[in-house]
Write a structure and sequence with these properties.
The protein is mainly alpha-helical and 160 residues long. The chain has helices spanning 4-15, 21-46, 53-57, 62-65, 68-84, 101-121, 127-146. α1 (4-15) packs across α2 and α2 packs antiparallel against α6 (101-121). It is rod-shaped, with a radius of gyration of 33 Å.
């Protein structure tokens, strides 16, 4: 979720250090978009029609969300339309509800495998942190050398 987003961005910067930070961020966004598109496609492939009690409890169709007077008016309108039109097909259900249980199971397995692969195989050297530490050490050594004259005696900087 959103709590992992800053951590993932920071980790991408650490892993890709000399490269610009925006490239790692762009790759994270690209990966998210590709995975999202694939998961939406898989979701549509795995959805099933509602059956039994689940069908009675669904509230997605226009018939179940309407009040009784609207339902009576709708049924009357459909009956009128079907009797006046020269068609042999009865009106179909307008339910958009679907059972996504199989997709949720696939998604849970996918996320567990993804986390396992990440924890087991992703090892980074924290290159940016190491570079920052080296720069701090160089700056400290440089600052300590500035307070000595050429003979190694410390210069009193409070007088100057």
């Amino acid at each position: 979720g959103f709590g992992m987003y800053p951590t993932a961005l920071e980790l991408s910067v650490e892993a890709t250090y000399p490269i610009d930070e925006s490239i790692g961020t762009a790759l994270i966004f690209l990966s998210g978009q590709l995975q999202g598109g694939i998961l939406i496609f898989v979701s549509e492939m795995l959805e099933q029609e509602l059956e039994g009690e689940a069908l009675l409890g669904e509230v997605c169709s226009s018939f179940t969300t309407a009040n009784m007077s609207d339902l009576t008016t709708t049924i009357t309108a459909i009956t009128t339309i079907t009797t006046t039109l020269p068609t042999t097909h009865p009106p179909t259900s307008t339910s958009d509800a679907a059972d996504h249980t199989q997709f949720l199971i696939v998604l849970a397995v996918y996320l567990v495998v993804l986390c396992f692969v990440f924890v087991a195989f992703f090892k980074t050297e924290f290159k940016r942190s190491k570079a920052n530490m080296e720069n701090e050490n160089i700056n400290e050594k440089h600052d300590s050398h500035d307070n000595h004259d050429n003979q190694g005696f410390e210069i009193d900087t409070t007088i100057m």
